[in-house]
C-alpha cells in the first residue's frame, strides 16, 4: 500500500514538472527578436532558437548546412514575412522540412517607405516589430501556431500570451510617455538604414536614412548628399548608429554636418545577454530612452 502511494506521488510530480527537453516543441525563428517573442509565448513547452543570433544581420544572412538540419528537425518555423527573409524559400526547400511555416506579421498593415529611402525603393517595409502594437499581433499569431502544433499546451500558450501582451501594453504606454517629453520640433533623427518607419508612424519620431530598408544595399553618393542636406536644412541634431550596420558612413555624415552621435539603436537584432537589448522589451525601451537622451536637450 505504501509503495503504491509513493509511486502515485512520483507520477504526479513527473506530470507537474516542465516538459523534458526531448518532449518540447522544437521551434526555429528566423532571427533573434522573433525567437524572444516565441520564447515568451511558448514558455517551458517550447525549445526555440534563432537562425540569426544576437547582433546578426538578417539582410546579409547566408544559410549553412547546419541551419538546414535545424529547420528540418523543427516542428514550427517562425518567420517575419513582408519580404524580410528573401533567402527563406531556398532554405526550406533545401531542408525538406515538414514544419509549419508561421508568418508572424500576418494581419499587419504593411507600410511603404519609398519616400524615405533610396529613390525608386518602393517595397513593403518588413520592420513591423518596431511598433509595439504590431508586436502584439506577432504574439497572437505565434500563440495560434503553437496551439495548432501542440494542442495539449493550449492553456499555457494562451496564458503566456495574455501575460506578455499586458507587458507590451505597458511598454507601449511607456514609449508614448517618453516621446511626449521630447519637444515636437526635435523629434527628427538619422539612422543607418530605414528600419524605424513603423516606430515613426506609431510614436511620431521622424527617421531618415542614407540606406534603404535593407542594410545590404550600399548608399549612393546621391543618397548621402540628400541626407547631409536634410540634416542641415532641418537642423537635425542627432545621428544614431545601429548594431547591425557599419558605423563608418554615419560617423562621416556626423562629422560633415556637425550633428552629434546620439548612441546606438537596435533595429533588426537583439544583443547578447550582456548587452542593453537582450529581449524585445529591452530593445524598445533602450531605443526610446536613447532617443530622449539625445533629443530632449
Entry summary:
This protein is of the alpha/beta class.
Spell out the blueprint of helices and strands:
Elements: H1 2-16, E1 25-31, H2 32-42, E2 46-52, H3 65-73, E3 76-79, H4 88-95, E4 100-103, H5 132-149, H6 154-180, E5 188-190, H7 197-203, E6 206-208, H8 221-234, E7 238-242, H9 248-257, E8 260-265, H10 280-295
Parallel strand pairs: 1-2, 1-3, 3-4, 5-6, 5-7, 7-8
Helix pairs in contact: 2-5, 3-4, 5-6, 6-10
As a whole number of angstroms, the C-alpha radius of gyration is: 21 Å
Model regions low in confidence, pLDDT < 50 over at least 5 residues: 7-18, 115-121, 212-217
The CATH architecture of the largest domain can be named as 3-Layer(aba) Sandwich
**Can you give the helix content as a percent range?**
40-55%
Using DSSP, what is the number of strands?
8
- Enumerate the strands of the largest sheet in spatial order, edge to edge or round the barrel: 2-1-3-4
- Structural class, by secondary structure, is alpha/beta
Give the tally of structural domains. Answer: 2
Instruction: Specify the biggest β-sheet.
Output: 4 strands, parallel
Amino acid at each position: 500500500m505504501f509503495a503504491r502511494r509513493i509511486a502515485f506521488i512520483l507520477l504526479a510530480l513527473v506530470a507537474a514538472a516542465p516538459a523534458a527537453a526531448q518532449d518540447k516543441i522544437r521551434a526555429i525563428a528566423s532571427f533573434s527578436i522573433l525567437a524572444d517573442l516565441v520564447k515568451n509565448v511558448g514558455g517551458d513547452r517550447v525549445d526555440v532558437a534563432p537562425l540569426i543570433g544576437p547582433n546578426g544581420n538578417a539582410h546579409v544572412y547566408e544559410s549553412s548546412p547546419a541551419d538546414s538540419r535545424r529547420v528540418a528537425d523543427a516542428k514550427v518555423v517562425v518567420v517575419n514575412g513582408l519580404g524580410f527573409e528573401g533567402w527563406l524559400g531556398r532554405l526550406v526547400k533545401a531542408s525538406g522540412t515538414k514544419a509549419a511555416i508561421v508568418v508572424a506579421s500576418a494581419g499587419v498593415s504593411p507600410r511603404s517607405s519609398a519616400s524615405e529611402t533610396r529613390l525608386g525603393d518602393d517595397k513593403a517595409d518588413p520592420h513591423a516589430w518596431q511598433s509595439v502594437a504590431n508586436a502584439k499581433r506577432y504574439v497572437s499569431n505565434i500563440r495560434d501556431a503553437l496551439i495548432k502544433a501542440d494542442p495539449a499546451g493550449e492553456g499555457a500558450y494562451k496564458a503566456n500570451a495574455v501575460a506578455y501582451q499586458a507587458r507590451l501594453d505597458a511598454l507601449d504606454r511607456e514609449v508614448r510617455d517618453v516621446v511626449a517629453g521630447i519637444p515636437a520640433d526635435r523629434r527628427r533623427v538619422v539612422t543607418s538604414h530605414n528600419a524605424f518607419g513603423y516606430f515613426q508612424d506609431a510614436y511620431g519620431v521622424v527617421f531618415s536614412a542614407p540606406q534603404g530598408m535593407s542594410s545590404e544595399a550600399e548608399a549612393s553618393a546621391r543618397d548621402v548628399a540628400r541626407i547631409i542636406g536634410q540634416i542641415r536644412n532641418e537642423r537635425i541634431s542627432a545621428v544614431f548608429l545601429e548594431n547591425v550596420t557599419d558605423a563608418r558612413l554615419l560617423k562621416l555624415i556626423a562629422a560633415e554636418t556637425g550633428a552629434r552621435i546620439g548612441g546606438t539603436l537596435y533595429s533588426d537584432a537583439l544583443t547578447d545577454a550582456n548587452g542593453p537589448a537582450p529581449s524585445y522589451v529591452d530593445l524598445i525601451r533602450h531605443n526610446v530612452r536613447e532617443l530622449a537622451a539625445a533629443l530632449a536637450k
